[in-house]
Amino acid sequence: MDVRLADKRALVCASSSGLGYACAAALLREGVSVWINGRDEERLLAAQQRLKAETGGRVFTVAGDITTLQGREALLAACPDADILVNNNAGPPPGNFFEFDEQTWLSALQGNLLAPLMLIRALIPGMRERKFGRIINITSAMVSTPRAHMTLSAASRAGLTAACKGLSRECIVDNVTINNLLPERFDTPRQQQMAQVAMKQSGITFEQARQRQIDSIPAGRMGQPAEFGAACVYLCSDLSGFITGQNMHLDGGAYPALL
């Protein structure tokens, strides 16, 4: 399938590893010029070299923390006319709701609600003028199936989902779409972190914690990052212009509801 992206430019946030890296790799394979981002410049440069070796694509780096104005300005200055924006950031920590103070909440909202909205706000006018834009928010299964120990993630990402739903209806007339990818249990460093949390909470081994993760997925395995990247590419493609404001679950069948 020719997704007709060869002349496009993409900003992929938090992409030195994990699902952001997978999206960057998939876009590069389709001929997209990709700017990857991360806070650790050394890790970012290493990711750039791996991506070049894996894809042969045009990949550039922008070091910076997107939760800060300075970090966002650096990203936008590097590629001010991006056709594709993949919003991604490290998820807030799990834990007991009553242990989270106001500063913890503000940090979660800054990282997973306000930062992506500010990038969207900066890029949408140009996308609409050029009559092409694809915005992908990497959120979480917690948006549709909140759990008590994940209130920071559920609240901040649900807020982003709600804001983008209304905006998506306004922008689609100019061929600018906004969609959300909701991962659960992909084999990334984030799941290793969650396994470490489960070890401490339940007094189990790392292997037992990982097996619990696998057992929670009907597919009987964790998702592979490349599978996630492929879904991102389709929603960024020229062929997906009639899809907007949607939440796509990528979870091996874990989502239990009909709608």
UniProtKB/TrEMBL annotation:
Gene3D superfamilies named in the record: NAD(P)-binding Rossmann-like Domain
CDD domains, A to Z: BKR_like_SDR_like (cd05344)
Similarity annotation: Belongs to the short-chain dehydrogenases/reductases (SDR) family.
Protein name per the record: SDR family oxidoreductase
UniProt source species: Serratia liquefaciens
Lineage summary: Bacteria, Pseudomonadati, Pseudomonadota, Gammaproteobacteria, Enterobacterales
